[in-house]
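Think of the structure tokens as a kind of shorthand, similar to the way a musician reads notation: each symbol stands for something richer, in this case the local conformation of the backbone. In the example below we present two proteins back to back. Begin with the first one, reading the sequence and then the tokens, and try to describe in your own words what changes along the chain.
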Amino acid sequence: MMRLRQAPATVALFLLALTATAHADCAWVLWSEEQKSPIVSRWIVVQSHVDANDCRQAQAQKLRRMGAEDGAQIEGNIVKFKDREQRFRVLCLPDTLDAREPKGAR
């Protein structure tokens, strides 16, 4: 009787591990979005990385470099400039996702 109660939990843990492994096995892409105004933006691929940790390290470096510019302010993964409307967002995504696609497109 006890084994039957543990089965759903075991299956759930297995599926969770399988999903995490699938994302761990894919490459990661560092994206940058340049927003020139609230309605005009452009996404570009900056670099691809072997795993999420490498991508996040590159993201942090890029944010630090951009934040070093005069008048730049970093808020999370966004760099804002005091003297211009332009701002940048730097984002890491698995290579199975495209930052340019609308949310819910997949």
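Once you have a description of the first chain, move to the second and do the same.
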Amino acid sequence: MFDINEIKKDLYKSKNMAYFSHYQSGDLYYNVVVMDALYQFPIPVVETDYIEPLEEGEDERQIIKLSEDLGSTPFEADMRGSELIRWMQMAIKKEQFIKVG
């Protein structure tokens, strides 16, 4: 398991940049070097809600909207890793902070 405090310390000390990798299925993926290893993590940008059918026989409707967690954060191709700690922490909790190199 990862110690988020150690990750924070390393990112603030090293000033390592996080680099946009790709977009897939509603997530932005970034790569960042933390404690001398390359990790990848997702940032969810969309939320999916399902609405009950309005009338009998009608299919359930799916509504996709931007994640409220994004706020007004600008996501650049490269950013200081420390600016993305919030999403790294969420990825760690969901076991989506993956070592890739």
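Compare your description with these statements about the second chain. Strands lie at 17-24, 27-34, 37-44, 46-51, 61-66, 78-80, 98-99.
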